[in-house]
Amino acid sequence: MIQIKNLDFKYEDELILKNINLELKDGCYTAIIGANGSGKTTLAKHLNALLMPTKGSVTIDEIDTKKDQISVRKKVGFVFQNPEDQLVYSIVEEDIAFGLENLGMRTEEMKTKVNSTIKGLDIEYLAKKNVNILSAGQKQLTALAGILAMSPKYIVFDEPTTLLDNKNKKNIMDVVNTLNKENKIGIILVTNLLNDIKYAKNVIVICNGRIIFNDKKSKLNNKILKKAGLDA
Amino acid sequence: MLKKLTFGQYAHKDSITHKLDPRIKILAVILLSATAFLLETYYKFAIFSLFVFLLIMLSKINFSSLIRNLRPFFFIFAFILMMYILFSRNELDKGIQAIWKFVLLIIIASILTFTTTITNLVTGIEKLSAPLKLIKINSRTIALLIALTIRFVPALFLYAERIKDARLARLGSLKSPKHVKLLFLPLLDRIFKSASTLSDAMLARNYTEKRISYFSAIGLKNYDYISFTVLLAFIFLVLLM
Ligand SMILES: Nc1ncnc2c1ncn2[C@@H]1O[C@H](COP(=O)(O)OP(=O)(O)O)[C@@H](O)[C@H]1O
Ligand SMILES: [Mg+2]
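The joint structure predicted for all components is written out below.
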């Protein structure tokens, strides 16, 4: 379980996140929505220790993000908005192995893991390709594969579809849904596109660094969306 | 288009040279290049060239792609030759030898790039630069820098081209210094954004400077030691003759 208690976060002197309290259960599918600049990315980065609370605490299965970043990042994967900027190596399968190399996995085990991940996402045909010739959707799948290979318990997606075309958008959202339903991976989906949240079970609405709604998706109404500046 | 987007010339073949450990190949390129520089008689040139020719055959490289690598230098070769013919015809020998050495160097380097994947090349450099830790330089950092250059430079070129086209469409021409600024500022902005996301993405995947395992592992086999011994023997022979 991911627990956030009394979290405040400041960039320089500006308070960006204000008194955030949250619990995200194993196997959850939670969407975090909010207008541009409301603090979604800042909050998301706290979940895998890319940012540390100015006040309060974030724990992943009782592990404090301030204490043990490596364990936290093994449990929580992070897929960024821009598929271009999160791939390190030029060849797809090598990039997928990047995280495993960092964890010191043996070569044979690594090959098996990379192959099964590639198979799971149906992207065997990309394995030996150069990253630079892939489409944005294929790059995003590669980035996701690199995270999946590390067998995370949760994956945070920060606006993963903003830069994709409609077909790829749908594809990625379907893949994410499958990961949640079949692989029981907890999904935290950050987005400002209401279309993206159709599979989510819970929704958190964030407005000016504060949580103004945190409940089942069915309870979400237009008044709240309007308040968050998201009225469709 | 594809060439612009990817680095390297690796062509997959089943050959002895392809199977060699990249470290052996990198060392061989260094040693052979140094030897090429020391050649002074046509007799030695002939023997050395024969050896390089043998390497080409062993590596199953087709000659047309070798010629393609040499083509950009033809103009320089012609220029050097012309200078010798015009100004010191009695030293023409020297000119021909200089060009010949140049050609040999390019071919030797090409054999390496044709038979070694970029990844293996980078891993080879990483392992060979391990002793640099004595002067506090981390070899994985070096390897990472090379890998990131290979990964991002083509992407940035492509991005620069896109900005240029967009600007051209709006401004008609890009001649004045102000226009150059319009081209570089977005590029710089993009580089900083990419670097910031990339460093987050690497941390998120637990990047560490002390790497202990490799996806594309390399390892020295008997066959590597034998090849290297043969190479050393050949070089000694040429130099002592
Ligand atoms: N590195 C930074 N330094 C200072 N302020 C920042 C930084 N990153 C984001 N901010 C500010 O934090 C606020 C929330 O940003 P962010 O979390 O990226 O919002 P969102 O992801 O919801 O669009 C914005 O007002 C933004 O200007
Ligand atoms: Mg954001």
